[in-house]
Amino acid sequence: MIRIENITPRKNIVKYQTHIPIEIPNEVVVPEVTDKIISDSIYKIGKESLLIVKDVEQSEVTLNSETSSKITIKSLSSVIVKTDVGQIDEEWDELLLEKGACVRFKFVDGNWYILSSDGLKIS
Q1: What is the pTM of this model?
Q2: Domain boundaries, the chain
Q3: In terms of C-beta density within 10 A (0-12 exposed, 13-18 middle, 19 or more buried), how is residue 90 classed?
Q4: Of 33-47, 76-90, 108-122, which gets the smallest average pLDDT?
Q5: How far apart are CA 87 and CA 97, in angstroms?
């Protein structure tokens, strides 16, 4: 026979962490804009991570290596993509994105590279 004495029952302890924002009086926190929809015929990328181009017959978008190192462009209109420096995939000075195309660009060592694409590249 086994005798058990002075054994305390087990307790399951679950810890929950919650994020409680600290409010500082007279300070306004402005979230950084990362997604943008445009209808401009000429546009230079700012700090966006996603740019949707629509409601314009044709748009010329310039990639800006000074403000962004990666950008996804979704074209719901015809879009010509140009670079501020270097080339796209070390080959093209510009790309034509047909309506419905989506292309992700990344700036590395002086050139813009296509990381993924579901559209046609026309030089």
Answers
A1: 0.70
A2: 35-117
A3: exposed
A4: 108-122
A5: 16
